[in-house]
Amino acid sequence: MTNAQNNPANTFNSGSVCALMNSADEAMSYLTLNDDDMTYWVMNALKKRTNDGQGIPCEVPMAQAGARYFALLDNATADMKGRFSPADFSLLLNSECSPVWSWEPSRSLAGQVADDNGVDELNDLDTDSPLRILIERLMTLSPLENAVLVDACEQVWRGHPNPLL
User: Among 29, 70, 82, 131, which residue is least crowded by beta carbons within 10 Å?
Assistant: First the structure.
């Protein structure tokens, strides 16, 4: 028996996933201008993965997507642990001071940090500047690695220990 089976509070059923989706939809409605587009995109993605004829509600692919996403984050988090210093995280955390970030995979944290610090060109910064070094490191990250950093920063803003330090 798995841990989820031993502890019913840790399991998802269609009602809990549907409530989670509704809650996320409500939360997204006041975060950013892009949230309507994001909600529309997510709902269309879920519709493509359901089959009413087989009785598969949208909660099933939503739960699967969440489980897969967090598994990917966990694996990448283990690989990234220790790659950024507390000083790096200070710059990252100050680029968006919120427990919920307005980030999507098409955005680079390098651009976000640069924008927040008024950097138009890297050449405007000294080559040994900690900010330049961080931005250059962020520029090499994959979308998944950017997601790991966003997730870590959100966890810190929510009062949890930094999983990457």
Answer: 82
